[in-house]
Write a structure and sequence with these properties.
The structure is a single chain. The protein is mostly beta strands and 203 residues long. The protein has one domain: Immunoglobulin-like (Sandwich). Helix content is 2%, strand content 56%. The chain has 1 helix and 15 strands; from the N terminus they run ββββββββββαβββββ. The protein has a 15-stranded mixed β-sheet that branches. β5 and β6 form a beta hairpin. The longest helix is centred in the middle third of the chain and has 4 residues. The chain starts with a strand and ends with a strand.
């Protein structure tokens, strides 16, 4: 007998507000087929960001969180109406270099879920200087990255986890729905690994 259950996790990124800063959104630009992924996350160097994580269903405990292999201090915010656990952490871009127009970098988010394993999300990214911050705010605002996975437990107690759906949510009424590859996502535990491209959807 095989027992199945589903889990989900949301990620979102915002700038840490400074002074009278109003726009804390992070934006995504379209890169077509010039690079590996069709869209690119736009961040600024020497800037602090808040990473929000919402964990629900099968795994409710976020035990560790990393950005580009740097461990983050996790703050548990609480629980929402959907009984999902809410966490947040801050990271900064003080050690990254500016991205040239002909290049793209990668921001890697790694979330360790208790009883599940490590969820790794590589985001194609371009880093802008603060002097060019206006350019970093052109594009579609990033909503959240939604990941849904299915876990299986066999009668001998072995578990495996596979990604069922992974969707990048863009908050913009002006961006039409597309189905372009944007992120490659791995859910690792040692029993099974499944890779799946994300779809782009509006909310």
């Amino acid at each position: 007998m095989v027992l199945e259950e589903e889990g989900k996790i949301f990620f979102s990124i915002n700038k840490v507000p400074i002074g009278a800063t109003i726009d804390t959104k992070v934006y995504v630009k379209s890169d077509g087929v010039r690079f590996t992924d069709g869209r690119t996350l736009k961040l600024e160097v020497k800037t602090s960001y808040v990473l929000h994580v919402e964990v629900g269903h099968a795994a409710k405990t976020l035990s560790a969180l990393f950005v580009n292999s740097v461990p983050l201090a996790i703050l548990k915010v609480g629980e929402n109406k959907s009984n999902n656990f809410m966490y947040k952490a801050t990271f900064d871009t003080t050690t990254v270099r500016l991205t040239q127009d002909s290049e793209r970098d990668t921001l890697i988010i790694c979330a360790h879920l208790e009883g599940v394993g490590a969820l790794m999300i590589p985001l194609q990214t371009k880093y802008y200087s603060q002097q060019l911050s206006k350019k970093s705010r052109i594009g579609a605002p990033l909503g959240s990255i939604f990941v849904q996975y299915r876990s299986q437990t066999t009668k001998d107690g072995k578990k495996s986890y596979q990604i069922k759906k992974a969707v990048l949510l863009i908050v913009s009424s002006q961006v039409r729905d597309e189905k372009r590859s944007i992120l490659n996502l791995e859910l690792k535990r040692g029993y099974s690994i499944e890779r799946q491209n994300l779809e782009i959807r509006n909310v």
